[in-house]
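From the methods appendix. Each design record in this collection lists the tokenized structure first, followed by the designed amino acid sequence. Records were kept in a plain field format so they could be parsed without special tools. The example shown here is representative of the layout used throughout.

RECORD:
FOLD TOKENS (530 positions):
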């Protein structure tokens, strides 16, 4: 199979002999003006599990396997992933109407054959199984480096925060690695009068394969959803880039509970983590923008979830929905502190003041707590430090764009953008640098100009501040906290300085980024002086 896939990728097309084996593939014909954005419904039962010959090499039964390509037409909005999921839900209803649906992203694979049985243990629990809407596994990756260079697998979030949300029965639905109860996903409200165990029945279907295919084609057509509640009250919610989170919250507000399950033995599902900084920041921009849209919409958990969700769960949701809102407070600390240090403007109490103690305590206690918690969750010290850096970069770049774009859309100043897909295929050199834990830049994007400018502002502030205040009696005491803050930011940005001034590989920051960053940082310092 691997050889056939690689051969097809090299040729750029499906070989005729493979195409002829499947009538579903045969319908993808450019001679009939069929493209990926303009085509009819295509459904093929590749393996019919009801047939006697549907067995593997060892004689074990194979499950029914169905190939589905929902209809797409230029005049109909296809609603991205949410639309695809809803089409699959309807098609599977016709095929088997299975009570439990497993949702996986295309870049994830099963890592534990017991995962399905584990999920069924929750759904079939005699005491509370009837109220469980979905069982969510954490999103884990197989290609994370030893020290998690880009903070792709935040262990503290997985092991502490999301587990805490699960304690309220309000585990977040994160769009993959999730087992759903069909009736909850289809918009049914929980009722204690309904026997949840009775819904665990499979559909006995006497239709032929051709009849099932033709019936399913209607269900995945563009016009099927017109005048229905699909995308509103039924299935995944439309109109939000993070349809998974808002759909999960809506299900919980319908009275259902959800489980967050992180197996101790091994990850149930593994995916592919972004292996360049730019891809990681683009991904977080999309997430933060979608989450902030939920907060500003009618689905805000403090409003929509009022009296429907526990207060702790509402605040837990807000922790993620307000990612974008952390951008500007962070930028204030990153930009104002070093510029004021250059001009001798103290922003914090001097070291000799009693008011220095609460500031130092809050920062010190938070840092120590975070480090200890990180080590307990499985981070290395370097891995924890990498996470602090990546969070800083996200808040000073991705989340800024997310905040601005979301507010602009709310005010009608910008049109809704498309779904930004993050590519995860990279060259061999990029993969090698990632495995060696060398940060990948390599472009002149606006994001990297902001990152480099913030790094240079803090470098100017630290160097200029030391030159100005080191020799002044009481100067270091007066500006101590600002020196400390700038030192930490400069330390976190060391890979940025190396990429700006010392590296010469393809992953360094281009020369034009260096000139723009130095120029903008110098301009900011001059304006502050004026």
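DESIGN:
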């Amino acid at each position: 199979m691997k050889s056939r896939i690689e051969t097809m990728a090299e040729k750029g097309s499906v070989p005729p002999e493979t195409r002829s084996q499947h009538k579903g593939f045969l319908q993808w014909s450019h001679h009939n003006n069929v493209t990926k954005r303009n085509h009819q419904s295509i459904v093929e039962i590749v393996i019919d599990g009801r047939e006697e010959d549907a067995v593997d090499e060892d004689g074990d039964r194979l499950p029914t396997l169905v190939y589905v390509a929902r209809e797409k037409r230029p005049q109909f909005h296809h609603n991205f992933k949410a639309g695809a999921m809803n089409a699959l839900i309807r098609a599977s209803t016709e095929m088997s109407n299975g009570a439990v649906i497993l949702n996986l992203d295309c870049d994830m694979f099963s890592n534990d054959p017991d995962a399905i049985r584990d999920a069924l243990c929750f759904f079939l629990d005699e005491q509370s199984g009837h109220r469980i809407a979905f069982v969510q596994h954490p999103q884990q990756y197989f290609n994370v480096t030893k020290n998690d260079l880009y903070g792709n697998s935040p262990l503290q979030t997985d092991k502490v925060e999301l587990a805490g949300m699960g304690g309220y029965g309000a585990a977040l639905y994160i769009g993959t690695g999730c087992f759903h109860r069909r009736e909850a996903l289809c918009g049914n409200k929980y009722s204690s009068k309904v026997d949840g165990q009775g819904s665990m029945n499979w559909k006995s279907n006497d239709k032929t394969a051709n009849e099932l295919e033709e019936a399913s084609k209607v269900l995945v057509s563009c016009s099927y959803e017109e005048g229905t509640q699909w995308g509103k009250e039924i299935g995944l919610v439309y109109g939000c880039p993070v349809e998974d989170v808002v759909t999960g919250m809506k299900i919980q507000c319908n009275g259902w509970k959800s489980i967050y399950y992180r197996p101790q033995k091994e990850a149930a599902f593994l995916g592919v983590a972004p292996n360049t900084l730019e891809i990681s920041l683009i991904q977080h921009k999309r997430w933060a923008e979608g989450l902030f849209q939920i907060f500003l919409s009618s689905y805000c958990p403090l409003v929509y979830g009022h009296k429907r969700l526990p207060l702790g769960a509402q605040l837990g949701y807000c922790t993620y929905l307000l990612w974008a809102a952390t951008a500007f407070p962070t930028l204030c600390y990153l930009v104002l502190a070093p510029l004021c240090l250059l001009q001798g403007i103290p922003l914090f109490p001097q070291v000799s003041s009693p008011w220095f103690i609460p500031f130092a305590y809050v920062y010190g206690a938070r840092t120590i707590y975070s480090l200890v918690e990180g080590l307990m969750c499985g981070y290395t010290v370097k891995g924890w430090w990498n996470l602090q850096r990546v969070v800083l970069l996200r808040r000073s770049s991705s989340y800024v764009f997310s905040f601005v774009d979301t507010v602009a859309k709310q005010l009608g100043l910008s049109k809704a953008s498309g779904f930004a897909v993050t590519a995860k295929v990279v060259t061999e050199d990029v993969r090698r640098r990632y495995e060696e834990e060398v940060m990948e830049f390599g472009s002149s994007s606006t994001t990297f100009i902001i990152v480099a400018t913030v790094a240079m502002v803090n470098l100017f502030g630290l160097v200029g501040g030391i030159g100005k205040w080191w020799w002044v009696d009481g100067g270091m005491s007066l500006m101590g906290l600002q020196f400390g803050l700038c030192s930490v930011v400069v330390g976190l940005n060391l890979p940025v300085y190396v990429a700006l001034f010392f590296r010469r590989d393809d992953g360094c920051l281009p020369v034009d980024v260096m000139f723009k960053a130095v120029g903008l940082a110098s301009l900011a310092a001059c304006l502050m002086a004026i």
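APPENDIX NOTE: The radius of gyration is 27 Å.
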